[in-house]
Design goal:
The chain has helices at 13-17, 38-55, 63-95. The protein is mainly alpha-helical. Among the domains are: 30-59; 61-96. The longest helix has 33 residues, at 63-95.
Length: 96
Amino acid sequence: MTTQQNQPGGKDLQHSQSGSTGQHTPQRSGRGFAGMDRERQREIASQGGRAAHASGNAHQFTSEEARLAGSKRHQNAAARANATRSEATSDENAEA
């Protein structure tokens, strides 16, 4: 393995990038989707979304479906809150 002497002061490139001082931003590996710059990721994701809608595989909520989903979410949150309250009450009664 060879090191490059590109950094001022004679530090090799490998050590200057892997420091844990927080001064350097992490370098992307250049492999796969995560290695691309954010703008390129957005372009590819946008193409996928358009293709899914064009083929009829993408789901678009109607206002009624969205209303029903929101209602279920609030019902579930209320049920969890009630269950937590009843557990706390039963714990207090058990200690007494």
